[in-house]
Fold:
Amino acid sequence: MNRLVLAGIALVSLSAPALAATASLTPGQAEFRALYKELVETNTTLSSGSCTLAAERLAAHLKSAGFSDSDLHLFTAPDHPKEGGLVAILTGRDPKARPVLMLAHLDVVEARREDWTRDPFVLVEENGFFFARGAADDKSMAAIWVDTLSRYKKEGYRPKHTLKMALTCGEETSGAFNGAQYLAANKRDLIDAAFALNEGGGGMLDAQGKPIFQGIQVGEKLSQNYTLEVTNPGGHSSRPLPDNAIYHLANALVRVQGHPFPVEFNDTTRDYFTRLAPTRTPEEQTALAALLKDSTNESARALLERDPDINAILHTNCVATLLSAGHATNALPQRATANVNCRIFPRTSAETVRQTLEQVIADASVHVSLREVRNAPAPPPPLDPKVLGPAEKLAREMWPGTPQLRLMSAGATDGAFLTPVGIPTYGISGDFGDPDGNGAHGLNEYLRVKVVYDSRDYLYRLMKIYGDQ
Structure:
């Protein structure tokens, strides 16, 4: 069909609000929006999508911007043909200068159309928001990285330091093939860098959309699942016995719930709470000062743990997430199991926590075992002024008066695979989230339109600073 006819059909299909939104964009923003839309609308769920297809489409964008085949490295593992990724390289002027790596993941959490208000795999722009699965996690960053390299290539910009980009699959699903892990283990030289920028950082907005802080992620907790299992001969429910698998498991979970893991600090969290204090209430400021001075201060701890964001990084946390028990309504249970998900403070091993759970439960009939191990504990990267300084200076310029924080993530990112192999990985995005978490991993995921374009500008400028420093 004639291209002009196709263009006309596409134009007619756009809603009036979408037309108004795109009409106000600069040519560069419009090109980025089209790239972002194409990536979002490429299904990359583990169940029915293809990261490999997304990587191929993004490689085509870079090639059209001027990258040669030798600069683009598409990769797949033979037994995971739909979970491929892409590494792209913009060669720098100085071969002795260490490269800088841009990292993002292409895969997204599962989403069912019947559960969502809008089609999760169509980028919808509505009332100043982008809605779609992956709009925030993590396709905005992946699209920005591709757009940034494309802009540099078209401008003829050649940095002092080589700039690399790795877009990978498998970040969202424990136990799935993980592209970052694969690259770290099998193609370490290809992604070698002095440091990497990744998701995980960013700021927070208040309910009115005003910035509260802008943050950089420096380290993360270890996510580890444990199975609690009780087995029993069972029997007829008309003859109940004290030795009941469900009761054993229920009591075990109550003990896990009531166990207070000790408060811990590292360089990142101590710096974070020190910087955070001026933004909190006087009562919270006093409690933070007390806890930083004495981590065993129970009254200060109790007050601060009311805030789930603070509680998430004060110490290791373990919480029950799945239950299964029994086999018939008229039978004593022969088996009862639960999944307990722990977010473990850095430098504590998964086995140490397993042993702690056993001690806390104190019931020999409850067997505690590790489920799949996503990664080993990763030490936090250093608070390196060569990394943090430029990012914070630019953030102060773009969002004057907004406090700058260094964060430890309670979640898990692919930085856990790179930092241990000598590529310190920082969450630096320049975006801002809303108080409700933007629906990430949930329904109707969204990101503010202004946030996306501001993040695009921030990372484009920041990578030039890193490229030339």
Observations:
- The chain has two domains: 16-200+413-468, 222-370.
